[in-house]
Amino acid sequence: MAERLLVTALKGGRNTKILTLNGKRITKMPSTLEKLPNLKTLDLQNNSISKVCPELRTLTQLTLLNLGNNHLQEVPEEIKYLTSLKNLHLFGNRICRIAPGVLNGLHRLIMLNLNDNRLTSLPQEIGRLRSLTYLSLNRNNLTVIPKELCSLEHLSELHLNYNQIVYIPEEIKFLKNLQQLFLVRNNIEELPEEICHLGKLRVLDIAGNVIQIFPAGFQNLRLREFYCEGNPLFLKRPFLAVQPKDLWTLREIAARFVLSLLEENDPLIMDAIESYPEAKDKLSKAKKCSICRKPFLSEWLECVHFVAPSKNWKISRNLKLIPVQTSVCSYQCFDQRDPNVFGIAQE
């Protein structure tokens, strides 16, 4: 059957645009593909191909290549010559590496599916896929999201379910067009504040991680769907605790004094701070108290603000309140807090 389909395609020669050899028990990619220079779609999924033929590189008009559910062990170098490629399916293989430079020529690629493989990392070249809008890497062995991935400014869907990712880089803020983010069943302990900058994010699924609290401003995301079941979220179970007196270091007292003058645009301090770049850098990391809105540097109370999820969100079934990070500069401010703000107890 496969031979008959291939013969028919070859008879068409330059007029053949589509070749489908799905599930034909093929173990070797046919080298005669070079006789189909105008091929647009090549579907070879559900076979037993372990290596692509060198002639694949001649298919420069190819826009869709499906090699899903085969026996490939790497994303082969030949693919980099497919400069017209828009959709690439490599799911369900045994891929543990991406050949060096293979992503450099895929400037038109908009969809990449590498689900169900054995990848432990992604190359820096992932950032070269400038047209990519959909990337799926479910069920691999990834531990980090490379910063370079966050330069894909057109990316709208990112699927990273069932990996071993520990944290999300702050550079995620550069994914300005990201609409759907899936991080189910990883080892993520916290979300960066920068995730709150994703103004187009509509679907976020972080079920099955180890997150306890969300970054300040998280409740302002314009989500439509939010799922977080299976995380050990902080619960609203208040109890009374002794509050010690505020006792700041001289460094903190000085920092707060300087920070207050900088907020007032004091000309003397504004000029003087330029002569101390190290101090300027440290002061640039200052935060503001959620109660009095005054700046502080390193002495503060980490608190949790329990907020109700937006009525516009489709949410996890039992989610009633979202624990959101907030910082208070002193016990004096802590006593004036909102009734839904609590200190975080160490169990």
Give the SSE layout:
Blueprint: H1 2-12, E1 18-20, E2 41-43, E3 64-66, E4 74-75, E5 87-89, E6 97-98, E7 111-113, E8 134-136, E9 157-159, E10 180-182, E11 203-205, E12 225-227, H2 250-263, H3 267-272, H4 277-283, E13 287-288, E14 295-296, E15 301-307, E16 314-315, E17 322-328, H5 331-334, E18 341-343
Parallel strand pairs: 1-2, 2-3, 3-5, 4-6, 5-7, 7-8, 8-9, 9-10, 10-11, 11-12, 12-16
Antiparallel strand pairs: 13-14, 15-17, 15-18
Unreliable spans? 5-11
How much β-strand is present in the residues?
A: 15-25%
Taken in chain order, the helices and strands follow as HEEEEEEEEEEEEHHHEEEEEHE
Q: Can you give the helix content as a percent range?
A: 10-25%
Number of separate helices: 5
Computed over alpha carbons, the radius of gyration is 27 Å
Mean pLDDT: 92
What about the largest sheet? Answer: 11 strands, parallel
Quickly give the structural class: alpha/beta
Characterize the structure shown:
The chain is α/β, with parallel strands linked by helices and 347 residues long. The chain has a domain at 250-343. Helix content is 12%, strand content 16%. It is built from five helices and 18 strands. An eleven-stranded parallel β-sheet has the order 1-2-3-5-7-8-9-10-11-12-16. A three-stranded antiparallel β-sheet has the order 17-15-18. It is elongated, with a radius of gyration of 27 Å. The model is unreliable at 5-11 (pLDDT under 50). Residues 147-222 form the Disease resistance R13L4/SHOC-2-like LRR domain. InterPro entries: Leu-rich_rpt, Leu-rich_rpt_typical-subtyp, LRR-SigEffector_domain, LRR_dom_sf, LRR_R13L4/SHOC2-like. Keywords: Leucine-rich repeat, Repeat. This is Leucine-rich repeat-containing protein 69 isoform X1.
